[in-house]
Amino acid sequence: MQTTKEQGLIGETKTSSPPLYRIVMWVNYTSLLACIIFLYNYRFAIPNVSLLESFGGIIFLVGIILIILAHNELPKEHGEPKKITELATKGIYSKIRHPVYSGFILINFGLSLIFTNYVMFALSILLIPLWYIVSKCEEKFLMKKFGKQYMNYVKRVKWRFFPKVF
Length: 166
Known about the structure:
Blueprint: H1 19-37, H2 50-73, H3 99-114, H4 118-146, H5 148-156
């Protein structure tokens, strides 16, 4: 009996999330947790400016809203890339191609401003290239899976993370 292996998002053959994605998510959640638990009272902080904290709260909420909007549009199979049968192209996906990643970027920056912390701010900046790499790998996978349909989607929705910015 011959078995076939299907390639996942970044070349792995497991049904779980790709290794790079798991690493980025681990770093993302670890930095968020560290900020919340350990860095709130840390003295290596930006001077207490309530306007800055308020702005951070707004950025954080926009990130949460982006993730909620994205998850409302995603097909159920999005957790297992091999099972995806259709592209999410409506709603927030008609404006940006990776709204969940955009949401995480905004959440990280928002929390760094809320907690007025340089370390979290630096981690937020360092995570952007990782999200970019994950998105490129995801797009490569979707291009293989959906071909011309995905190519047309990329032409129609030019912005990866933020409209008219990136």
